[in-house]
């Protein structure tokens, strides 16, 4: 007994030295992780696609001068005045050519896309502060508090949106180019189907990008060059501006899906992410010494002290009683895994609040685009079938049709991505080691699972959400489009019979 008692202080000194070394290593590891996190957060760049807003005149750069901001403001006013004048001229052209189905369908197909673009850009300019607050929230509330090992999900979200933009902007530029060069390729005026009757009343409407009515003769120079230049500017900026705003919408949706993915990863890495020092204090209590052996590890609370083998040594028995009292009096709210679960639930609530604000901003204009999509398909399909002999007209409307389909498909793709990732949170909550945790952990987890069961959605108005189901439903409206198409063909046949 005296030999063991003599070795005990020496063993305690070794354990204290080892414990200090471990604590210093843990603190060094923490400092290194903090430095890496600050480095990554400081260098990471998100919403890189928002530079398109600067390029196409919707938003001045962050550090621009007052003169530059004034130029941007004057340009946006000028281009939207052109939008409004073009739409009014198209409405006048519809009134002038009412009864000529080919010309009216031509005008309405182009006007549908122009109105959608104008409403999108005006909606963005009106809610620009809300957009900026969403981007700031993404940077300050999510990215700034993110651990370095989860930055890969942010980079993946950025890469997906950049890939989408690399396809979207060339497509928009191609459509603008096709619509701009078609007037120079046409040598014949627009004709009325089989009877080849000129419906333009000596006005070469095919020589313009948009079929419009003008109160003066525009065929003479330099009026024609000015009108064609302004129309090319309208079609180009209408397509590029709507793409710039939509790519920002899509980027916000992609980052929301990435936050759900990060939340799932954090829940899966719960044991790893909880501080090693806190876990050491909770699970690795100091060893208990007896007269014949040394007991390692924590003492279970559900076993009475009388069942433990411990000697009558006063110092060791006193330490055992103190440790038991500490375990009994431990506050469950201070459990590190419970606190980590609370942080994950707050993260989930923050992402849901972010999506609510996003729906507030993009809901109305997205609903307008979904309603415009079947009408665009109908007008485009009608023009393609009725002007099949004209390669220029066929190419122009096929390009517009492909652009509309790709844009709506991007919305549906990223919206479905948000739904899928939010549904994975339920499995991540349940996958935690909840059956080995404190009662507070087990009481809180079902509430989190119940809320995560309802998937998060990006809304398009009240009735639709951005998903593949909605895309299929909108495509299902093709039956209405077919009926409208049959009605137009019947009107054409009746008009030709006369």
UniProtKB/TrEMBL annotation:
Keywords: Membrane, Olfaction, Receptor, Sensory transduction, Transducer, Transmembrane, Transmembrane helix. Its main location: membrane. It is found in: Membrane. InterPro entries: 7tm6_olfct_rcpt. Signal peptide: none annotated. GO terms for biological process: signal transduction. The chain crosses the membrane at residues 74-95, 101-125, 161-182, 226-252, 361-382, 394-414, 460-485. One of its GO terms (molecular function) is odorant binding. One of its GO terms (cellular component) is plasma membrane. It is a multi-pass membrane protein. This is Odorant receptor.
């Amino acid at each position: 007994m005296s030999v063991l008692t003599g070795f005990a202080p020496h063993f305690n000194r070794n354990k204290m030295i080892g414990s200090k070394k471990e604590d210093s290593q843990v603190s060094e590891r923490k400092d290194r992780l903090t430095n890496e996190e600050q480095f990554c957060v400081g260098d990471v760049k998100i919403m890189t696609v928002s530079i398109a807003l600067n390029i196409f005149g919707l938003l001045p750069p962050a550090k621009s001068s007052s003169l530059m901001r004034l130029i941007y403001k004057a340009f946006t006013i000028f281009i939207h005045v052109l939008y409004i004048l073009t739409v009014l001229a198209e409405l006048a052209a519809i009134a002038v050519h009412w009864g000529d189905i080919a010309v009216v369908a031509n005008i309405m197909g182009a006007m549908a896309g122009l109105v959608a673009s104008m409403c999108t850009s005006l909606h963005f300019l009106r809610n620009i502060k809300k957009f900026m607050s969403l981007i700031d929230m993404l940077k300050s509330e999510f990215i700034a508090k993110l651990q370095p090992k989860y930055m890969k999900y942010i980079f993946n979200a950025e890469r997906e949106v950049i890939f989408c933009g690399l396809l979207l902007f060339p497509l928009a530029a191609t459509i603008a180019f096709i619509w701009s060069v078609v007037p120079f390729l046409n040598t014949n005026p627009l004709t009325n189907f089989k009877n080849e009757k000129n419906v333009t009343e000596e006005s070469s409407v095919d020589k313009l990008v948009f079929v419009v009515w003008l109160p003066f003769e525009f065929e003479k120079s330099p009026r024609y060059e000015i009108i064609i230049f302004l129309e090319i500017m309208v079609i180009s900026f209408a397509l590029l501006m709507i793409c710039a705003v939509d790519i920002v919408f899509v980027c916000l949706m992609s980052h929301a899906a990435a936050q759900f993915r990060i939340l799932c990863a954090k829940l899966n890495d719960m044991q790893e992410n909880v501080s090693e020092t806190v876990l050491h204090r909770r699970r690795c209590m100091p060893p208990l010494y007896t007269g014949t052996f040394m007991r390692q590890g924590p003492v279970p609370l559900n076993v009475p002290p009388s069942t433990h083998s411990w000697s009558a040594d006063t110092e060791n028995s006193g330490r055992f009683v103190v440790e038991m009292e500490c375990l009994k009096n431990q506050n469950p709210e201070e459990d590190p895994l419970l606190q980590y679960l609370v942080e994950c639930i707050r993260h989930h609530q923050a992402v849901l609040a972010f999506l609510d604000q996003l729906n507030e901003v993009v809901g109305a204009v997205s609903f307008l685009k979904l309603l415009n999509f079947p009408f665009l398909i109908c007008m485009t399909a009608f023009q393609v079938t009725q002007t099949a002999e004209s390669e220029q007209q066929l190419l122009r409307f096929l390009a517009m049709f492909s652009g509309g389909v790709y844009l709506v498909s991007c919305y549906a793709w990223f919206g479905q991505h948000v739904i899928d990732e939010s549904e994975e949170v339920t499995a991540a909550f349940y996958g935690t080691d909840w059956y080995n945790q404190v009662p507070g952990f087990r009481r809180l987890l079902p509430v989190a699972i119940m809320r995560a069961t309802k998937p998060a959605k990006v809304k398009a108005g009240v009735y639709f959400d951005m998903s593949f189901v909605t895309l299929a439903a909108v495509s299902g409206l093709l039956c209405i489009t077919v009926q409208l198409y049959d009605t137009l063909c019947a009107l054409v046949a009746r008009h030709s019979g006369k």
